């Protein structure tokens, strides 16, 4: 889906810049998330993408379904996106908008997978260390995967830190086999 991401990028960037200028980043985040959910409904999307509908009719139906969830600027944005036949790009626009928002807020979503459940103290210590290392405010989400044997795997965007026993054994096996 690299194409969809490429198509969505300028829309997300324009929406984010407008939202920043008007101080409505949170509102736009909510609106785009809602619009992405609407497009995520396959039945609704199929209904909107009928060949008998014009772009104006598609926009009108979408805005009726959205109801009060979109403000005037959000309605204009959605109408513009639909007029340019980019309805399918709305989920990608929302995702890219969230990435721009996180970058501006110097925040990072970090996924931690551990072999055992982490206590609140361990999570707080890990969040503090990751905040220091990444230079961003960290929002942790944790999972348990007993196949790791021990240790943790940390994922944040493109960064992966594999401190698991399974990862170390795989690395050792690769070294011995080469």
Describe what this molecule looks like in 3D.
The structure is a single chain. With 178 residues, this protein is α+β, with helices and mostly antiparallel strands. The protein has two domains: 2-103, N-terminal domain of the delta subunit of the F1F0-ATP synthase (Peroxidase, domain 1); 107-177, no CATH class. Helices cover 62% and strands 14% of the residues. The chain has eight helices and four strands; from the N terminus they run ααααααβαβββα. The protein has a four-stranded mixed sheet with strand order 2-1-3-4. The radius of gyration is 21 Å and the shape is elongated. The two termini are 35 Å apart.
User: In percent terms, what proportion of residues is strand?
Assistant: 5-15%
Largest sheet: 4 strands, mixed
What is the CATH domain class of the largest domain? Mainly Alpha
| Pattern of helices and strands | HHHHHHEHEEEH
Question: Helical amount among residues, as a percent range?
Answer: 55-70%
What would the CATH topology of the largest domain be? Answer: Peroxidase, domain 1
Q: Give the strand tally.
A: 4
Shape: elongated
Give the spatial strand order of the biggest sheet.
2-1-3-4
Radius of gyration of CA atoms, rounded to a whole number: 21 Å
Quick gist of this model?
The protein has eight helices and four strands. The chain is of the alpha+beta class.
Keywords:
Peroxidase, domain 1, 178 residues, 14% strand, elongated, alpha+beta, 4-stranded mixed β-sheet
Describe the protein's topology:
Elements: H1 2-22, H2 25-40, H3 42-48, H4 55-66, H5 72-83, H6 90-104, E1 107-114, H7 120-134, E2 137-144, E3 152-156, E4 159-162, H8 165-177
Parallel strand pairs: 1-2
Antiparallel strand pairs: 1-3, 3-4
Helix pairs in contact: 1-2, 1-6, 2-6, 4-5
């Amino acid at each position: 889906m690299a194409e969809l991401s490429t198509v969505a990028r300028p829309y997300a960037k324009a929406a984010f810049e407008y939202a920043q200028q008007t101080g409505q980043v949170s509102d736009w985040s909510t609106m785009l998330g809602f619009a992405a959910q609407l497009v995520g409904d396959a039945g609704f999307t199929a209904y909107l993408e009928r060949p008998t509908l014009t772009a104006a009719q598609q926009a009108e139906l979408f805005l009726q379904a959205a109801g009060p969830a979109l403000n005037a600027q959000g309605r204009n944005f959605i109408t513009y996106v639909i007029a340019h036949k980019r309805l399918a790009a709305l989920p990608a626009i929302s995702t890219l908008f969230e990435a721009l928002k996180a970058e501006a807020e110097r925040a990072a979503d970090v996924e931690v997978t551990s072999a055992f459940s982490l206590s609140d103290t361990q999570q707080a210590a890990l969040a503090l260390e990751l905040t220091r290392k990444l230079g961003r405010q960290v929002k942790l989400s944790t999972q348990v995967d007993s196949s790791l044997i021990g240790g943790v795997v940390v994922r944040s965007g493109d960064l992966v830190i594999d401190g698991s026993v399974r990862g170390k054994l795989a690395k050792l096996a690769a070294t011995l086999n080469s």
